[in-house]
User: What shape does this take?
Amino acid sequence: VPVAQNAIFEMQDKLTLKQLQNAQLYYNLGTYGGNNFQSAIIVAQNAIRDYPYSKYKEQLELLVLKARFKEAELSVAEKQPTATVRLSMNTTRLSTNIPRALTARKPTISTRLHRATSSLINQHISKIKNTITPNL
Assistant: This one.
């Protein structure tokens, strides 16, 4: 039974890797032929939902975060507050899901990416707040 269980886990990780590669391809396509960032988000979220215990879960979550950031950055001015709220919700969820990586002695690539993305998100949020309610 343990051998079969390990084989199932390995196959699930291969399927998750394939989903990660698909989501990364959509992300890399960007706005070519439409909004591929949304496609990357959908593929990554489906993979997270289907394989919640995969070793690629953290990478999928970060890809969702990056794609949401790009969407918020490229959205029109009146929709930016909504896109930024969705982005900040994902950042909060991501930071609660990977506390071990954030407290590790040697920061992982995803930890550094998370910190850099969080900084960019905060800058983006403050920029949007200033355009909505300029400093008087």
